[in-house]
Amino acid sequence: MELSVASANWAWGLLSLAVPLLIHFFARRWQRPTRFAALRFLPGAAAQGRARRLSDWWLLLLRLLLLTLLVLGLMAPHLRLPVSRDQALILRHPDLFISEPPHSAPSHSSPPRQREPLDASTSAHDTVHWLCRDGTVQPLAQHCPADGQHFLDNLQLLIAREPQLAELTVQVPAALWRSALPLPALPVRLHWQVIASDAGPADNEPVWIVRGPVEYEPLFVAANALSAPPRWRWQPDAAAADLIIADPAGNAPVLWHDAPLPWRDAPASSGSENLAPASFHVDGEQLHLQVSDMASLADAPTRLAALLARSDHWLGRGRPRWLLPAAAAEQGLAVGAPAAPAIRDLALQPMLFMLALLLLLAERGLVHGRR
Amino acid sequence: MTLIDTEFLARMRRLNLPVRRTLPGFSHGPHRGKTRGAGLEFSEYRRYEPGDDLRQIDWKLAARSDRYFVREAERDSQVPIWLLLDVSASMLAQADSANAGRHYDSSRSFDASRCYDKAEFGAAILAAVAMMAARQGDAVGLALLSDEQPVLLPARRGQRELQRVLAALTKLDCRGTLPLPHTARALAGQLRSPALCVLVSDFIDDSSLVWLRWLAAGGHDVAALALANRDEQELPFRQAQLLEGFEGEPAQAFTPGQRAGYLQARAAQRGHWARWCRQHRVQWLEAVIEQSPDSVVQALLQGRASGGLAWS
């Protein structure tokens, strides 16, 4: 438990305690009573004296306490209380309500997807909740609103506002898994479960989306011809692509992968020895990616093939599974670890001001009651 | 400052203390007794009855009237004098030092830094009474009335007993409140026979009246001396202030507007007691302690001689 104050300068206000003390003692001195034996003949005699002296002391203490509370309230103290983390929660991405997987090869033989929530391999159904886009946690029977923040932002906000959470199991769709941004060190233990709504191609091999200038399309047509089944799908206007070809002005064209950053330790590139991690803007979007050089795709088709093969291998590490094993999932995104216990910050200012108000009412009541 | 000094006692010794009511005494003394018989002063004649002492027959009257009459005389008796002094805390109220010195001779040293209080003034009055009583050969007893530290000196004759009484009167310890007579069992045992009782108190609370009733019911010759200081008599305060009692009464804020009510209430109480004393043949005397003890003693003796209410 730790006590801190926001405005320590208000502590000088404690000097004001001298005011009621001085008033009290000077008043007692001025009001030194005269001894008189025949008090009984005074009209309207009331038993005030000794009680009045006692109440004077009580009033003094009351006023001192009132001033002290006021000064402490102005200092805005905060009490930091450790909160034990003992709760576990299973959260599901709201997109899992939609069964259509991203980036999967269209399969006409596949039955139309049902809009039903996927029941992943979790036995504790009553503990699974939606983490909706608006940041709320809803039971599976409820629906989530359509608009809101990014899932990972909501996840971080939830962890921040629920200090008692110790462990979270997060079920996310494959697209989020592949485009996940690094999370800061979180004081909870995260278990990722990647859910794929469809098996994808029959052989369970992914098809990578490629985007780039149109003149490079034939290269990928040729690459597809060399592999079965086809591994590359040319989609120049894809919003999210696995492989991007760009022509930075004045530089050789570059080929890089839209791979999740946790794999920074992966082989640097698909072929270029001069690799350096860099940040590129493609179509106005900043990507933090591994970069590979390709001096000339046209001049080295075999080299391109090798590059593509390496890219394929590189991209394959992010291949979604129905449910990644817990160990494999934790190799990916930063799962964090239970760090120091959460701290609940308790503001004491309202309570101190309320107490001061009550003491003020009591003091006024005593003063007027004596009269 | 003590009022009981040798000069004061010497002046008081020359005075006489009369007993207003005839009381049955048990030996000869200067006071008029209730019993008839051999004595110093003729009282009356009565017809001779068989068994009377033949020496008491007035033979001259028998020669003139041819009948036999016995000469009766009032028996002078000795009456114990009981001095009762209220030494409750309220008797600590002091005299107004600015006025007290006026009543004393310039030759007498007067310590203005400490003035005497009602208890000391009352003790001086009782010391004067004790001196008179001792000179008359009466037994003198002393009771200092306080619920915390009462003192009782049985009534005895002699100089040694007088000195004991005077010593006790000069060493007063006022504290507590005035007890009720039924709690003063030792004193009740001493006051079985009628006596002259001089009760000195400020008569502020009702327990003083209870003492008066108790003494009057016992057939005693009672003299009540009510003492007050100038502040209590006139309440001369002109400004609002806090007044605090002596016996633990709660303090009270005083405003000048209360003065009239105070004087009226005090006068009513005093008047009530004075009437009661007149009805029950108790000598009632009021005095302020700013005057000289000599004048109060004179007023006390005059009141006894006149048999009525006296105010010195």
Topology:
The complex is a heterodimer of chains A (371) and B (312).
Chain A: E1 2-5, H1 18-30, E2 34-35, H2 49-74, E3 77-83, E4 87-92, E5 128-131, E6 137-139, H3 151-161, E7 165-173, H4 174-178, E8 189-195, E9 208-211, H5 217-226, E10 232-234, E11 243-246, E12 254-257, E13 278-282, E14 285-289, E15 291-293, H6 301-316, H7 326-329, E16 342-347, H8 349-370
Parallel strand pairs in A: 4-5, 4-7, 7-8, 9-10, 9-11
Antiparallel strand pairs in A: 1-3, 3-16, 5-6, 11-12, 12-15, 13-14
Helix pairs in contact in A: 2-8
Chain B: H1 6-13, E1 31-37, E2 41-47, H2 59-65, E3 69-77, E4 81-86, H3 97-100, H4 118-135, E5 140-145, E6 151-156, H5 159-170, H6 185-190, E7 196-201, H7 207-217, E8 221-228, H8 230-234, E9 241-244, E10 252-254, H9 259-279, E11 283-288, H10 293-306, E12 310-311
Parallel strand pairs in B: 4-5, 4-7, 7-8, 8-11, 11-12
Antiparallel strand pairs in B: 1-3, 2-3, 5-6, 9-10
Describe this structure in words.
The complex is a heterodimer of chains A (371) and B (312). With 371 residues, chain A is an alpha/beta fold. Chain A is 29% helix and 20% strand. In chain A, the strands form four sheets. In chain A, strands 6-5-4-7-8 form a five-stranded mixed beta sheet. In chain A, strand 7, helix 4 and strand 8 form a beta-alpha-beta unit. In chain A, helix 2 packs antiparallel against helix 8. By secondary structure, chain B is an alpha/beta fold. Chain B is 34% helix and 22% strand. Chain B has a seven-stranded mixed beta sheet with strand order 6-5-4-7-8-11-12, with helices on both faces. Chain B has a three-stranded antiparallel beta sheet with strand order 1-3-2. In chain B, strands 9-10 form a two-stranded antiparallel ribbon. The longest helix of chain B is centred in the C-terminal third of the chain and has 21 residues. The two termini of chain B are 23 Å apart. About 9% of the residues of chain B have low confidence.
